[in-house]
Amino acid sequence: ATDGERILGLGDLGAGGMGISEGKILLYTAAAGVAPTDCLPICLDVGTNNEQLLSDPAYIGLRQRRPTGEAYFSFIEEFVAALKQWQPHVLLQFEDFGNHTAFLLLQKYRNQVCCFNDDIQGTAAITLSGILASLRLKRESLADQRILFHGAGEAGVGCGELIALALASWHGLSLVEARKRVLFMDSKGLVCKARLGKLQDHKITFAHDIAFAPDLLSVVRTHRPTVLIGVSTQAGAFSREVIEAMAAHCDRPVIFPLSNPTSKSECSYEEAFAGTRGRVIFASGSPFPPLSTGAGGTFYPAQANNAYIFPAVGHAAVLTRAKCIPEEVFLEAAACLAELSSDRDLACGKLFPSFSNIRPVSARIMARVGKYLCDRGFGERPAGLVNDDWHGLATASMYRVPEPKL
Q1: CA angle 76–82–85, rounded 5-degree value
Q2: Long-range CB pairs of 156-160, under 8 A, 24+ apart, other chains included
Q3: How far apart are alpha carbons 187 and 60 in whole angstroms?
Q4: Contacts of 184 (CB under 8 A, 6+ apart)
């Protein structure tokens, strides 16, 4: 379900946000085999603040500005209550809500219903998975990385929180210490303690006691990150100077320009490859073409697509009738996906398996997530589970197009 306020990099589309819900529903079926009869795309049309749409005679949505505060949240409460009344168990995926509401809605409902926010948690999982796959190439530990985000909206902070949870869960750090390994830049500069009085709430846990810096290049040179992630929707933000600065202190810099669509990507694969003389480990939110070198090798840019994560997580939650989806589920999904590319594929840039194999990939993630949910008491063992064969159950549970009758 979406309210259409923040669609990809396109902004407030109002009722036009229905397309994103329809697209995500299609991916549930195509990628993870959820039967289409079990899926319902929803757009909650509460209006739009897009003046161009409000003045467009062809616009089909409500011609009013978006409500805020109690009027908005009481409507969402009514919607969630109706879902619960309609179905004893339902999975609710929040999609493309505005930054100012996305965190609040997730925080309010995550323990009330089986739900997650793909922009926050799905993006975080695919990003963490990309980092973990990169570390297989670098033969390094997550605990040894310094991570810098350019952009501090819902997607970026969600990624930072999941990385911190991974450091706490797998490497024994406290969450406070783990968050110190992650830095954020927003439109005003480095997020830091000196800016506490003017920061949005979701950024406060990453406001570290470090000196303020106004621009990305100076932060890269001062803090020497090993991983640079773009979630800013600012095309060209990873300039040649920034990329070269990353390569100057890091043998295999990890650079992920994740902003969509392609026109808003922080850099291209070709720019990252050239600026690091081919040493970059790269993943993007939008697709880029492969590069052929003079030596005859071909290198492929990985695409960090949430569709590797959310359909499998959602289907596992439905199969196990999960009461809720704890944050650790996304650690499990990220770790599972990071193990699936072969060493040979990693060496040429393929951090993730081919999307043509998405169903087998989803089955592996579904199996791991389903087992985790039941082992931790969040879900129920499905009736079809035999001899703890979670992978067999996941594969058998996938919808297949019926054979045509001749």
Answers
A1: 145
A2: 156/184, 156/229, 156/231, 157/103, 157/120, 157/184, 157/202, 157/203, 157/206, 158/117, 158/119, 158/120, 158/121, 158/123, 158/124, 159/123, 159/124, 159/127, 159/128, 159/229, 159/231, 160/184, 160/206
A3: 34
A4: 148, 149, 151, 152, 156, 157, 160, 190, 191, 203, 206
Tokens in use for 224? 């020497």
What is the per-residue pLDDT across 305-347, written as a single tens digit (0 to 9) for each? 999 999 999 999 999 999 999 999 999 999 999 999 999 999 9
Residue 385 amino acid letter:
L
Nearest to 287 by CA among 354, 384, 338, 232: 354
106 is written with which tokens? 């997730």
CA 306 to mean position of chain CA atoms? 6
Round to whole Å and give the CA distance between 66 and 47: 5
d(CA 219, CA 183): 9
Number of C-alpha atoms within 13 angstroms, CB side, residue 373? Answer: 30
Q: Under DSSP, is residue 45 helix (H, G, I), strand (E, B) or coil?
A: coil
Q: Sheet of 189-190: strands edge to edge?
A: 189-190, 182-186, 147-150, 227-230, 254-257, 281-284, 302-303
Q: Kindly report the backbone phi and psi dihedral angles of residue 280, in degrees, each rounded to the nearest multiple of 5, phi listed first.
A: -70, 145
Euclidean distance between CA atoms 121 and 311, whole angstroms: 12
Q: How far is CA 381 from CA 115, 318, 335, 386, in A?
A: 19, 11, 22, 10
Burial code of 270-295, b = ≥16 C-beta within 10 A, e = fewer? ebbbebbeeebbbbbbbebeebeeee
Q: Rounded to 5 degrees, what are φ and ψ at 168? A: -70, -40
Residue type, 194: A
Exposure class string for 165-179: b at 16+ Cβ within 10 A, else e: bbbbeeeebeeeebb
pLDDT tier at 44 (50, 70, 90 boundaries)? very high
Dihedral through CA 151, CA 269, CA 253, CA 131, nearest 10? 70
Task: Give the model's confidence band at 99: pLDDT under 50 very low, under 70 low, under 90 confident, else very high.
Answer: confident
Residue 326's Cβ-count burial label (10 Å; 0-12, 13-18, 19+) is middle
> What digits encode the pLDDT tens for the residues 214-239?
999 999 999 999 999 999 989 999 99
> Is 0.70 surpassed by the pTM of this model?
yes
158 burial via Cβ count (<10 Å: 0-12, 13-18, 19+):
buried
Helix (H/G/I), strand (E/B), else coil: 376: coil
Amino acid occupying residue 47: G
